[in-house]
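Posting for a labmate who doesn't have an account.
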Amino acid sequence: MVQVDTPTPVPPAADTPVPPPTGAPPSAGPVDPESLINEKAGTLARDVGRAAEGLIEGDLSPVRALLAEYAIPAIAALLVLIVGYFAANFLSRIISTPIRKRVDETLGRFAARLVFYGVMIGTILGVLGMFGIDVASFAAVIAAAGFAIGLAFQGTLSNFASGVLLLVFRPFKVGDMVSAAGVMGKVHEIDLFVTTFDTPDNRRIIVPNSSVTGGTIENVTHHVHRRVEVAVGVRYDASLDATRAALTEAAESMMPKMIRGEGRGYQVVLVQLGASSVDWMVRLWTHRDDFFAVKDGLTAAVKNHLDEAGIGIPFPQLDVHIDGKLG
């Protein structure tokens, strides 16, 4: 009887990688961006170390390999970034110029910024792909960062949303005289986060967009024509006809600045019988650019014509009756 010795299998060394069994599916788990970046950084550090050792030993092949693997892609990436920057500027001008001329200056600025940053983000993602970085693996990180930023900058995001509403619905535009958020002034700039006003006394006020949209907005110069109103009270002993004639002459003295037709012109209206005076209202229409000058002139004309007609403007009066039994 012959005995055959079966060889005992030798286990692989600890540092020898064990290949996966045949037919086993490869691992397809999500790639951690941080580990991917660390891996790339470690590989670069090792290659730089080999190149340094080669220089010391007089061997230039590691240096050439390092340049071929990293320097050329880095130069190509830099060129892509430069081309992307100029392309973003060019496209933003091409798209925003017609909008500024035909639609609105503020909407044109918004379109220019949107196109510029969109092209630059696409360029940066393309550069990352050139270095073998899977951009899709950053989706979870970007989502988590966006959620954290949203919590930290709730007020800023509210201003951003309000800025988008101002640009879309356009309740006012640059150059309009607007009263909003307790501020009266000419709109200097509408940004995505703030709106800048210049007041009549030459102060610049910057208001968050959420404050602008959170209250009533009065666009004073939206319409071409505005109505000037001057209220005045006269003595009770003044004739109604004489008063109306004097106020009519005052209104007609502003004829060169008055808008007539289309229901415009002027009105002299008896408003009420007040406690100390008979109250009148003089109204007339003028161009919005002449509003303050016409109001000043009409107020002066009302006073002068009443004085010429001998019609006084009374002070508030009280009649006091003293009972003789007191004391």
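Reply:
Got it, the structure tokens are right above this. The chain has eight helices and eight strands.
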